[in-house]
Amino acid sequence: MRSQAVGTCARRLLAQQHRNLQTSTVARKQTSPLSWHLDTAVAFDIDGVLIKGKRTLDEGRRALEMLNGDNVFGKRIPFVLLTNGGGVTEAAKAADISRRLGVEIKPEQVILSHSPMQALAEKYSDKHVLVVGGVQHRCAEIARGYGFTNVSTPNDIVAWQPAAWPFMKAPTDKMLSQPLRDFSNDPFYAVLQFHDSFDYGRDLQIVTDVLRSRGGVIGSEYADHQVMPLYMSNPDLVYSNEYPRPRFGQGAFHTCLRAMWAALTNGKPLNYTLYGKPNKVQYQYAERVLDRMALQAAPNTDLGQVQAKRRVFAIGDNPAADIAGANGAGWTSVLVRTGVFSGPEGSNDPANPAHRVTDHVEEAVKWIIESEARRAQQSA
């Protein structure tokens, strides 16, 4: 009897030691901010992956917790949020997602559709540009934060000349991005669409006016050609929110704009530069962000070596944007069924097939970590 009691005590002691070891391992994961696994990186879409409109997906929170150290490596895995959304600052988006998921997201981890457009500020710093999209003048303020110093919006133009779009009430002061301005001798040099249009009619009218106004002065005689560059930030025709079916995205406005332009110019093509997924510029920008994160995590690291070994995974719900872009960038794509794509079990998108299809983002991250653990074992 005594030996059985001793054996029982020994087993309990060993079990307690095992639990203590597990607890200490978790604690080390959570309190080692400089302990990173840099051979792997993950880029998440947001809508339809981590959240769905106003609804937060619990799988998203658990997926981010795994990357923050709750994994077999016991280390943090770098990740970014790579979204075709916009209309807010990177800091505001980071704060919103942090609050909703209960996981800290830093502004530098957020890449919005218009984030790479910051580079245009060097070219247009003091030149007059029309900024389109978003709520009231929020996108104008974002543009100024990027370094554009001479910005106007469609509402600013309608306030100056209400007949430019007579199908709305005159904009109030709080809807304007600046004090009332005279545009009669104030040329534009570029049009930049930062976000979805909240008034298609007004914005289609003002944008086509500006693009073909001689000398870039709105209200002047129309030229027979496009007189300035057009930059647009998000080609998504549809996106996913809490509504049971996909909704029109900024790409729907682009479709309307191209059709209007062709009708007004006898079929001439509209020239424009596109940002956002699946365009390569977005992925190049994301890789530079991941490079900076690697250097912050390990300042003395050989960046070239990190780049050579790093495998980037992209998780998204939209085959035409998330998966096509990731495949084109040479990343490993994972398609989830919680958003735009909702194919049956075992199916993939025929036009833009992903490397892996999962039911949700938590399952995707588990597969990524398991795959990378096997890769680490093989290279050891």
UniProtKB/TrEMBL annotation:
Q: Where is the signal peptide?
A: none
Q: Which GO terms describe its biological process?
A: glycerophospholipid biosynthetic process
Q: Which Pfam families match?
A: Hydrolase_6, Hydrolase_like
Q: Does the keyword Hydrolase apply?
A: yes
GO CC terms, sorted = mitochondrion
Q: Which SUPFAM superfamilies match?
A: HAD-like
Instruction: Name the residues that span the membrane.
Output: none
Annotated GO MF terms: hydrolase activity
Statement: the UniProt record of this protein carries the keyword Metal-binding:
no
* Annotated keywords: Hydrolase
Xref: PANTHER family: CAT EYE SYNDROME CRITICAL REGION PROTEIN 5 (PTHR14269:SF4), CDP-DIACYLGLYCEROL--GLYCEROL-3-PHOSPHATE 3-PHOSPHATIDYLTRANSFERASE-RELATED (PTHR14269)
Q: What name is this protein filed under?
A: HAD hydrolase
